[in-house]
Design a protein that fits this description.
heterotrimer; A alpha/beta (300); B alpha/beta (252); C alpha/beta (261); A: 300 residues; globular; C: 261 residues; alpha/beta; Rossmann fold
């Protein structure tokens, strides 16, 4: 079909701009069929405690709900937490380092989720240190996982040291998580500058409290992105349900009525190419809740 | 080649190439006062330009002859960092790995110099300029000065330094740093730290469409942003040294 | 000899190390001590932001260690707290810029000039962490009542080389503890098995104060300021009783925990 338009460059150009998304996803599918490579996304932040692990767990869960095959990798060697957030810590036997050092096969280390059967976890080692993982080995592992899974999500440790460099090795995409708070934004900016030039990161602004933004005591999403200048892939509100969920090992996406969960579902949709608008958190809370029900909370 | 003594040891400025030249100079200087540095540790400031492994080994060996232990290197490029590591030197400062895309390797050394060193270099250059005959010599020297262009946002932790001017087509975020011996122009919001006239030129200026730096430096002068946050519409402004302090003026 | 140099660490990021360092430093200064705060998070410095001192930074830790300046040139005097000084980290370098020996020498030099030195440790257990603890005599572990944080704190306890470690439990929400949705202070102390220096309740105003660079201890009348002041006194050996955050029964149990570890 492309051939007939090749003689008329202007028309080809027009088609690209209006049907850009369908073109892109179509060619994306072709690419995937040609090379059978899944998407490799590192979830990073610079600052600790802003919600990388929670985001990785919930996005992985949401993608699995959308029918995708997903593996989430805990790249935080020595301080692993992804297993706890997913409620899988009792099933961890082997880990990332065992696989890299060929002490076991990939299949022996991968932990399958109890509920979502297309979601797998590659746990981190608890008793080793980040310097022990060579970057090249990590990149090779990620590449191999990408031949078996449609999505490879890498939970990055805090900081800018070897742990960060390892987590990024092999990733082609990045999601930067920040909170609307000066130190977090500063660290996110630093991290953005340290990513390889071919990765264009997307931004999640986490723990937003619209009431505080309205009061003027919290940065707005616009304030955050006036510094970060990144394409926004999600805004996640803060609520106490997150702590409960994390402590219980249930992804917040599974808690009925959770606005945080709904936000993560929207991000999953955007990752899959749907143009879901980011709700305006400046509206009153009542209107916000009505909007949530239209988007269907809890619907799988 | 400079040798600087500090409380923790020696700093050797080894930016010039070939490094073999430094070896001879080093031997000469150390021979002049043979026992003076005995027992010290030395950090080698190697810069960004690649060098021969044998030359670096010769530097280390020369130091050892005078009982100086070379145990660290400050490297400004991956190539030099690798070289240093193979010579058994520990990396004392970050190499280009921290900001590979934006650092101007030729001139990273500028930011690492102390204010005294920078001023000394400025006066030497000015003296050279004066020695030339007539106006044209000075113009020629000025024309040869480079301007470093950077397109895009300069992020926290990234640093640009240049012998000459710097132009940024984008924002400089808080935590970002610009160091220029000449002028600085930011076609965007300047929110980080800018140091113009870094080697002592008090005529240097800082221009920005939105001048909101955390800190501004021109030559030896320093100014900090005021405490109150002003939320007014941004207008292009310039910072210059006037009457012994840095003044901000509107640029039309 | 009483300790002078403390590292404020946690393992997990984002639990409040930097905010604790800033407020503890301010409280100690208000109590009359000469205090040096060292930001050991090279490359991701934040202590200067939390203290609102960023724009006054000329030299940093790396400059001192590389001999480009004297320590006193790099120390920034906080004009709001008499006796409080900050040695900032570098923003443009990374943690390989400094090693453990250098950190040790630096902190010892500071300990000779100051009554107390607090080192703000980066998250994690990598090079930066090892640098930060190198010069410290004692550790203060900051944790929140969450499984991930406690797990990481526990890991850190095993890496302190025998240094004394005491706990600050941060961001406690008593109403969530009551409904069983959050671990109690008692639970945390039992798991980590260390003396408690203090319990800091969750307070949404902290976010605003950190954004504005105004540590909450600036206003001595505020509840949080009094809590940090008590922690400061306990840090240096005063036997200040822990206030009730939940109920009297718990207070009795907590007192036992505090004295007998």
């Amino acid at each position: 079909m492309k051939d007939t338009h090749e003689t008329d460059p202007l028309r080809t150009l027009e088609r690209c701009s209006s049907d850009d998304r369908t073109e892109r996803s179509a060619s994306g599918d072709r690419l995937r069929q040609a090379t059978t490579t899944g998407r490799t996304i590192v979830v990073t932040s610079g600052k600790g405690g802003v919600g990388k692990t929670t985001a990785t767990a919930n996005l992985g869960t949401g993608l699995a709900d959308a029918g995708k095959t997903v593996v989430v990798i805990d790249a935080d060697v020595g301080l692993r937490n992804l297993d706890v957030v997913l409620g899988l810590e009792n099933r961890v036997r082997k880990h990332l380092l065992d696989v890299i050092e060929r002490q076991c096969s990939l299949d022996e280390a991968l932990v399958r989720d109890r509920v979502r059967r297309t979601l797998y976890l590659l746990p981190a080692a608890q008793n080793r240190e980040k310097d022990e993982v060579p970057q090249a080995a990590m990149a090779a592992l990620v590449a191999e996982l990408a031949t078996r899974f449609e999505f490879v999500l890498i939970d990055c440790p805090a900081g800018i040291e070897q742990g960060f460099r390892n987590a990024v090795a092999g990733a082609h995409e990045a999601i930067i998580v920040t909170t609307p708070e000066v130190s977090a934004v500063r660290d996110a900016d630093r991290i953005t500058g340290l990513l390889p030039p071919d990765i264009e990161p997307k931004l999640i602004v986490n723990r937003v409290r619209p009431a505080l933004v309205n009061k003027g005591t919290m940065m707005s999403v616009a304030d955050v992105n006036a510094i970060l200048h990144l394409p926004l892939i999600g805004v996640v509100p803060d609520e106490k349900e997150i702590i409960i969920a994390t402590n219980r090992g249930t992804p917040v996406i599974d808690i009925p009525g959770s606005q945080t969960g709904a936000a993560f579902r929207r991000i999953v949709s955007r990752l899959l190419g749907d143009d879901v608008p980011i709700p305006d958190f400046q509206e009153q809370m009542g209107a916000f809740r009505r909007m949530m029900s239209t988007l269907g909370i809890g619907r799988r | 080649m400079q040798i600087k003594g500090t409380k923790s040891g020696l700093l050797l400025h080894l930016y010039e190439r070939p490094l073999a030249g430094a070896v001879n100079e080093l031997r000469e200087r150390l021979s002049a006062l043979p026992g003076f540095y005995k027992g010290s540790r030395a950090v080698l400031l190697l810069g960004a330009q690649p060098a021969e492994a044998a030359e670096l080994a010769a530097v280390v060996a020369t130091l050892e002859q005078f009982e100086i232990v070379a145990d660290g290197a400050v490297c400004d490029s991956e190539a030099v960092a690798t070289l240093a590591k193979s010579a058994g030197l520990r990396l004392v400062a970050a190499s280009v790995a921290a900001a590979p895309r934006v650092r101007d390797d030729r001139t990273r050394a500028v930011a690492d110099r102390t204010p005294d060193e920078r001023e000394e270099r400025h006066h030497r250059r000015e003296a050279r300029r004066k020695r030339r005959n007539g106006h044209s010599g000075a113009d020629l020297e000025r024309a040869v000065e480079t301007t470093l262009f950077h397109k895009g946002t300069l992020r926290a932790g990234q640093s640009l330094s240049a012998l000459g001017n710097i132009v940024v087509l984008g924002d400089v975020n808080p935590g970002g740093e610009l160091v220029a011996t000449g002028d600085i122009i930011v076609w965007g919001a300047l929110r980080g730290v800018a140091h113009a006239g870094a080697e002592g030129d008090e005529e240097a200026c800082v221009y920005a469409l939105q001048l909101e730096p955390t800190q501004l430096r021109i030559a030896r002068y320093l100014a900090v942003s005021p405490d109150e946050r002003r939320r007014r519409k941004p207008v292009p402004e310039a910072a210059r040294v006037r009457n012994g302090r840095i003044a901000i003026e509107k640029e039309t | 000899m009483p300790s002078r140099v403390f590292v404020i660490t946690s393992g997990k990021g984002g639990v409040g190390k930097t905010t604790t360092t800033a407020n503890l430093g301010g409280a100690l200064a208000r109590l009359g001590y000469e205090v040096a705060l060292v930001d050991a998070d090279i490359g991701l410095r934040n202590l200067d932001l939390v203290l609102g001192l960023e724009k006054r930074i000329v030299y940093d830790v790396v400059d001192v260690v590389e001999g480009r300046c004297e320590p006193r040139q790099a120390l920034i005097k906080d004009r709001r707290f008499e006796g409080l000084f900050l040695l900032p980290a570098s923003q443009t370098k990374d943690k390989t810029a400094v090693d453990e020996d250098q950190m040790q020498r630096l902190t010892h030099a500071l300990a000779r000039e100051f009554d107390v030195v607090l080192i703000d440790c980066p998250a994690g257990i990598e090079h930066g962490f090892r640098n930060a603890i190198a010069g410290a005599q004692e550790a203060v572990i900051v944790t929140t009542p969450e499984v991930s944080a406690i797990r990481d704190a526990d890991r850190i306890l095993g890496m302190l080389g025998g240094r004394r470690a005491r706990l600050i439990i941060n961001r406690v929400r008593p109403e969530m503890v009551r409904t069983g949705d959050m671990l109690s202070v008692e639970d945390v102390a039992e798991i980590l098995n260390r003396e408690i220096l203090g319990i800091v309740p969750d307070d949404e105003e902290i976010i605003d104060t950190t954004n504005r660079g105004e540590p909450v201890v600036l206003d001595g009348g505020r509840r949080l300021a009094r809590i940090y002041t008590a922690i400061a006194r306990r840090l240096l050996g005063d036997n200040v009783p822990l206030p009730s955050i939940e109920d009297d029964g718990l207070l009795r149990r907590l007192r036992r925990l505090m004295i007998g570890t």
